[in-house]
């Protein structure tokens, strides 16, 4: 009986080993995407029984969508792959500019299928996409977003107590190269994500560590600490990394948390973060060495923080910001803010961003009051490609 059991066990192990090896060898036989060296990229997908395979990505011409709530906005384009005699579907792009690109496949009636040959994946809210980088020369965008042979900073996942929100929360903190070994004190940039994001968004999708490592190494940005908090006041951390079980985050201000407890807003609780950072990291604790910026919802948080704490930060960056100029105390608070002479109030947005009109109204108000600010406009809409550019530009203007 023992001999029979041992034989069956050995057979099962050999069978499982064969399956594992088959997966290994099958996955390695298809390469995708392939950088052809001339700026073009070839995608391959093995699906001999499929009737249709498409690739959708931000490297393709964008499709315009009309929405009754948000107006017009753009989504990733789609291209069809062609099947060869071996059941491999292929598509080669036109020449692409240096950039970090995202994509997935559509196979027959299934959408947003990840590339089984590409291990590089990012999560954006609830969507997972593969990524690839095109770079041509030193310090183009592809090079800036890549890990290069330069001195590297470190990313830490830091838990802190928020007395205002009455919970422990998590944030991501970047410390520049040399921080761990030295005693020097540093300025701090507070970097805020958009709706649906969390404390992982800027470090993963935004390539914050790579951008700062490369800028600092080239002397284009000052060495700084970058704090990337979770901007959802009713959440402790990214989904699945908290004590709330399978609680579904609502990504809204105020309201109640998972235990029906009242939740303060992000701007009301923001000094809990600043105080923790100042007490636990080597920071320069004054206005001249603090900056805050954010994208979309995080731009809205920056907009609120600038008015609530007008003498705490000297640099403000609104990236595709969700702003409301109709607040009851808006004009009074803006007057107080600009009377304090901040060193930089920077607004950046894409030409086709669905929040463009909102930002245009803010600029019209600032112009009417002769308040000093800087404006930066790019092509495209409400996309990470723009927000990485904005971080790159903003980080080179602060603490100078």
Counting DSSP E segments of at least 2 residues, the number of strands comes to 20
Helix content: 25-40%
Give the terminus-to-terminus CA distance.
Answer: 79 Å
Proportion in β-strands = 25-35%
How are helices and strands ordered from N to C? HEEEEEEEEEEEEHEEEHHEHEHEHEHEH
Tertiary shape: globular
Radius of gyration: 24 Å
Helix/sheet category = alpha+beta
Mean pLDDT: 89
The DSSP helix count reads: 9
List segments where confidence is low: pLDDT < 50 over at least 5 consecutive residues.
1-27
How can the largest sheet be summarized? 8 strands, mixed
Strand order of the largest sheet: 13-14-16-15-17-18-19-20
Layout of SSEs?
Blueprint: H1 2-29, E1 34-35, E2 41-46, E3 53-57, E4 63-67, E5 71-75, E6 77-80, E7 82-83, E8 88-92, E9 99-107, E10 110-113, E11 121-124, E12 127-134, H2 141-144, E13 154-162, E14 167-175, E15 188-192, H3 201-204, H4 208-217, E16 225-229, H5 266-280, E17 290-295, H6 297-308, E18 315-319, H7 330-339, E19 344-350, H8 356-368, E20 374-378, H9 384-395
Parallel strand pairs: 15-16, 15-17, 17-18, 18-19, 19-20
Antiparallel strand pairs: 1-2, 2-8, 3-6, 3-9, 4-5, 7-8, 9-10, 9-12, 11-12, 13-14, 14-16
Can you give a write-up of this model?
The protein has 400 residues and is of the alpha+beta class. 27% of the residues lie in helices and 28% in strands. The chain is built from nine helices and 20 strands. The strands form four sheets. Strands 13-14-16-15-17-18-19-20 form an eight-stranded mixed sheet, with helices on both faces. Strands 3, 6, 9, 10, 11 and 12 form a six-stranded antiparallel sheet that branches. A hairpin with a 4-residue loop joins strand 7 and strand 8. Helix 4 runs parallel beside helix 9 and helix 5 packs across helix 6. The longest helix has 28 residues.
